[in-house]
Amino acid sequence: MATLSYSSGVTSKAGGASDRVRPLRADAERTVRAILEAAERVLGANPAATMEQIAEAAGVARTTVHRRFATREALIVAMTGWATRQFHDAVTAARPDATPPAVALYQVTANVLRVKIAWGFAMNALRTDDPEVAHVHTDVLDRCDRLFRRARDAGLLRPDVDLDWTRRVYYALIHEAAQDDRGEDADVLATRIVDTLLRGFGMPDGPSAR
Amino acid sequence: MATLSYSSGVTSKAGGASDRVRPLRADAERTVRAILEAAERVLGANPAATMEQIAEAAGVARTTVHRRFATREALIVAMTGWATRQFHDAVTAARPDATPPAVALYQVTANVLRVKIAWGFAMNALRTDDPEVAHVHTDVLDRCDRLFRRARDAGLLRPDVDLDWTRRVYYALIHEAAQDDRGEDADVLATRIVDTLLRGFGMPDGPSAR
DNA sequence: AGAAGATGCGTCACTGATGTTGCAAGTAAA
DNA sequence: TTTACTTGCAACATCAGTGACGCATCTTCT
User: Fold this and answer.
1) Residue A126, pLDDT score
2) Rounded CA–C1' distance between B25 and D1, in angstroms
3) Which nucleotide is closest to B53, CA to C1'?
4) Low-confidence stretches of chain B (pLDDT beneath 50)
5) pLDDT given for residue B148 in this prediction
6) pLDDT at A122 over 50
């Protein structure tokens, strides 16, 4: 499970070595979550939204937001960190190295979609300069690569596919499906994605002019 | 051909009915183009870039930018307008209604890719509330739809495809391919896109477990 | 109940970006 | 060459967003 592990409110400026992670009181933790979720909603609709708007959506005062997240930057970092952990969990939970490629592909897709739908803004605001984000990013990339290789060896993918392009298209399909306004179920979308990835939209045997 | 037809520098505030489109002097027109191109480059790298940075990249003073484009907003509108016209020309030039579906699909893809690569930021900043943009948008959407129907009827696409999802994936593939850093040729990318769209990455006859 | 913690509110300071104006110097076009 | 246009520069006004405090009040936890 992903934990909050948020850091640095306005008070911890001369932090130094005392950056102990003190547990939050119950109400404070609720507030932090409310802010993160509100930020996702508001920034998702308008990436240039102000702290004021985020605070309002979270049902707190703007100063409270600043108390929890020293700067706007810090808030975004916290969001991406949280989303990244969710993302990592989603991939891990699908056990992509342990199940048959077809199953893994479907499971990973569905799990990631759920996170992507709920944390779309944060997942797009990822900064590769953050060590945690970068680590998860490459880790997932590796697993994706391994999964595709297994899929290829199992005859699920053609032997001559460009794995890099395949991955990029796969990511793009997930991204596109996540934009679905009609609130489709993640499983339905995952099915569609995998089907599209594997078969495309053409006839099974190429153009029918044969 | 798309024309500049830029409007409203800082002076034309009480414009009224005298919004005659006076032709620009040669040097001024060069400046306008330089600003538009610089804006595309700079904003493409950092959407939050300042007018100052754009001006610098264009090799002019910030005040000159404001002389040509009263507000930042106006600059973006001009960019999207310009890009939109290029986009429309790109689609039209491919004659999607007149050539065989397979040819049209390839030509449209290649032409649009060229615009998308050069005007990526502007094409993403499109505002559907602008009448010109909205018109081109729906027009292209219609042509895309007709093209896909013809492709389906010609046996290029499966009879049961979801045309809406197909179009979204098509757009996403173009978008993804346009991000290619390696400066690949538009024709190469178009080939890859069409191939991916039609065949996906799986085996021709489905999973080989047959 | 009491202590520690959390929030709302009002307020202030600071910063960076935007948009405007006047003027002198340079450039295109007739 | 003359005229109209264009640009750079410097200065100015404005404004929105950000971040920081102190204090009174309320909540949580022990």
Assistant:
1) 87
2) 20
3) C17
4) 8, 10-20, 210
5) 98
6) yes
Which nucleotide is closest, CA of B23 to its C1'?
A: D5
Torsion of CA A101, A105, A107, A110, to 10 degrees: -170
pLDDT > 80? residue A18: no
Task: In whole angstroms, give the CA distance from residue A17 to residue A148.
Answer: 44
Buried b / exposed e along B14-27 (16+ C-beta atoms within 10 A) = eeeeeeeeeeeeee
Cα separation values, B143 from B3, B89, B156, B189, Å = 22, 13, 17, 21
Question: Using CB atoms, which residue from A158, A166, A209 is nearest to B155?
Answer: A209
Q: Is A24 helix (H, G, I), strand (E, B) or coil?
A: coil
Of A87 and A10, more confident: A87
CB B79 within 7 Å, strand C: no
Does the CB of A29 fall within 7 Å of any strand D atom?
no
Q: What is the pLDDT of residues B186-210, one digit of tens each?
A: 999 999 999 999 999 999 876 765 4
Closest CA to A35 of A12, A14, A60, A13: A60
Amino acid at A178: A
Quick: pLDDT tens for A157-166: 999 999 999 9
The CA distance from B109 to the nearest CA of chain A, in Å, is 16
Best of A147, A174, A201, A208 to disrupt the B interface (most B CBs within 10 Å) is A201
Put simply, the answer to whether A202 touches B197 (Cβ < 8 Å) is yes
Q: Is the CB of B73 under 7 A from strand C?
A: yes
Q: What are phi and psi of A163, to 5 degrees?
A: -60, -30
